Amino acid sequence: MKKPVIDAQNVDLTFQTNDGPVHALKNVNLEINKGDFVSFIGPSGCGKTTFLRCIAGLETPTGGRLTVNGMTPEEARKSRAYGYVFQAAGLYPWRTIRGNIQLPLEIMGFPKSEWKGHIDRVLDLVDLRGFGKKFPWQLSGGMQQRASIARALAFDADILLMDEPFGALDEIVRDKLNEELLKLWAATQKTIGFVTHSIPEAVYLSTKIVVMSPRPGRITDVIESTLPPDRPLDIRDSEEFIKIAHRVREGLRAGHDA
Amino acid sequence: MKNILPIVTIVLALIVIWYGAAFKMNSTWTYDQAARAGTEVTFSDLLSDTMQQSRPLLPAPHQIASELWNTTVEKKITSKRSMVYQGMITLKTTLLGFVFGIVIGVALATVIVLSRVGRLTLMPWAIISQTIPIVALAPIIVVLSNAVGTGTLMVPKAIIAAYLSFYPVLVSMVKGLTSPDQMQLDLLRTYGARQSDVFWKLRLPSSMPYFFASLKVAVAASFVGAVVAELSTSAISGLGARMLIGSQFGEPMIMWAALFAAAILAGLLIFLVGSFEKAARHLMGGRAL
C-alpha cells in the first residue's frame, strides 16, 4: 500500500498558559492520501486551524507522531512541501499581483529566468490573467484571495493547506471560488487540507470530511464523501449531498454534547 | 483649490488684527514724541506714523513685507544682509541635520526591532534624550566638537538639528518595522524565509508609510534645531543669528524679517518633503489620495 502523504498518530498539543494547560489537540489520528481533498470542520476552538498549523510546521505537537511526505513537518516545510493560504489574502500592497506571486520564488531562490513561467502558469490557474500588473487594492476581495492562492501555488508544492480562505468573503463569491477551487484541484492533482466552518462548503469540496470538537480539540468523525468527483454547484440540492451534510451536523452536535 | 478660501479668510483676519495691534502698540511712541515736541497729534498723523516707524514695537505687515523684499530680492545674495544668504546657511544646517537624523533614527530603530538587548537598552535612552532641553545642550556640543576639531560651526549645529530630528524617525520606524502582523510573519515562515528576507522584503517595505509620515515631523524638528543652534551657539550667521542680532541691536525689522524668512523656509521644506512622500507613495503602488 502507498504511504499516506500526511500521517498523524496520537498527536497531542498542549499550550501552557497562565490559567493552566490548554489541550488544543488530543489524540488526533488521521491519514491523508495523495490527491485527497480533506476538510476540517468544527466550532471555534476545536483545533482545526491548530492541526493545520502543525502540518505546516508552524506549531510543534507536544506528543504523538506527525509526518508530511515521510518527513517531520519542519523538514517538509524546508523542502517546500506545501503552499499555505490564510484567511486574509495578505498581499503586499507595495507589490503588483505578479510581484506578490514572485515573492516565494525570490525567497526560495528560484532562478530568475523561471519566474515568468511560474507566474504566468498560476495566474492562468486562478483565472487572473491580465491582472498581473494591477496592485492589490485595485482588485476585489475575491480576486485578492485568488491571487493569494496563486502565490501559494507558484512554487509547485504538492500539498495546499488552506485556513478558512473564503471565510471573509460573501456567499456568492464564495460559491464561485469553491467551484474554481475544485477545477484547480482536478487540474493540478494536489493534496488539499482545507479548514472551514461552513458545512455546505466542506461537503461540496471534500473527498474526506474531518469533524472536530473542542475541549480538548479532537476528531469526532471522519466521513469519506460518496459524491462523484465532478460536482456542479447544484449537486448541493441532491439527496446524497444532504445526507452527508446531515452526518456532519450530527457529528458536530455529538461533539458539542460530549 | 477649494481649500484656498478658508486659508485666505484666516490670513486676512490675522492681517487686520495685526494692523490693529501695530496701531495700538506703536501709538505710545508717537504720543511720547508729540508730548516732547509739544504738538498735538491728529488721528491721521497717528495712523500714518504708527505704520512707518523705523523701530516700531510691532512692525506693520507691509513693513515686514518690504523689509523681506529688500533683504531677499534687492540685496545681492552674497551680502551678509541678504536673507537668502542667511537662509541658505540655515538650510544647509537643517538638511545636514535632517540626513544625520534619518540615518541615526533608522539605524537605532533597526537595532531596537531586531534585537531584544537593543530594545531594552536603547529605547529608554532615546526617550530620555528628548527630555534634555536642547538650549542647555547646545553650548556643550559646540565645545566638544571644537575640542574634537571640526573647525566650523556647521557640524555642531547639524548635530543639534539631528538631535531633535532623529527621535520622530526612530519612534515611527520602530512602529513601522514591527507593523507586519503574525499572519504575514507566518507566511514567510512557510517559505522558510531567512531573517534577512523578513527584514528586507517585509519589515522594511511595511515601515515606509510610517517613515514618510515621520519625515515631515523630522524636517520641521531639524529646522527648529538648526535655528535654535544658531541662537544658542553664538553663531553670527543663519536666520537664527539674524533674529538674535535684530533683537540685541534693537532692529525689530531684521528680527521680524528673519522670523518670516524662517517660517517661509520651513513651509517650503515641509511642502517639499510632502511632495516627496506623495511621489514615493505612488511608486509603492499606493492609491492616489
Keywords:
heterodimer; A: 258 residues; alpha/beta; Rossmann fold; 2 domains; six-stranded mixed beta sheet; globular; B: 289 residues; mainly alpha; MetI-like fold; 11 helices; 0% strand; elongated
Short note summarizing the structure:
The complex is a heterodimer of chains A (258) and B (289). Chain A has 258 residues and is an alpha/beta fold.
Describe the fold and architecture.
The complex is a heterodimer of chains A (about 260) and B (about 290). Chain A has helices at about 50-55, 75-80, 95-105, 110-125, 140-155, 170-190, 200-205, 240-255; strands at about 5-15, 20-30, 35-40, 65-70, 80-85, 160-165, 190-195, 210-215, 220-225. Chain A is of the alpha/beta class. Chain A has two domains: about 1-80 and about 165-260, Rossmann fold (3-Layer(aba) Sandwich); about 90-155, no CATH class. In chain A, the strands form two sheets. In chain A, strands 5-6-7-3-8-9 form a six-stranded mixed β-sheet, with helices on both faces. In chain A, strands 2-1-4 form a three-stranded antiparallel β-sheet, with helices on one face. In chain A, a hairpin with a 2-residue loop joins strand 1 (about 5-15) and strand 2. In chain A, helix 7 (about 200-205) packs across helix 8 (about 240-255). The mean pLDDT of chain A is about 85. Chain B is mostly helical and about 290 residues long. Chain B has two domains: about 5-60; about 85-285, MetI-like fold. Chain B is built from eleven helices and no strands. In chain B, helix 1 (about 5-35) packs across helix 2, helix 6 crosses helix 7 and helix 9 (about 195-230) packs parallel to helix 10. Chain B is elongated, with a radius of gyration of 25 Å. The interface of A and B includes residues 106, 137 and 155 of A.
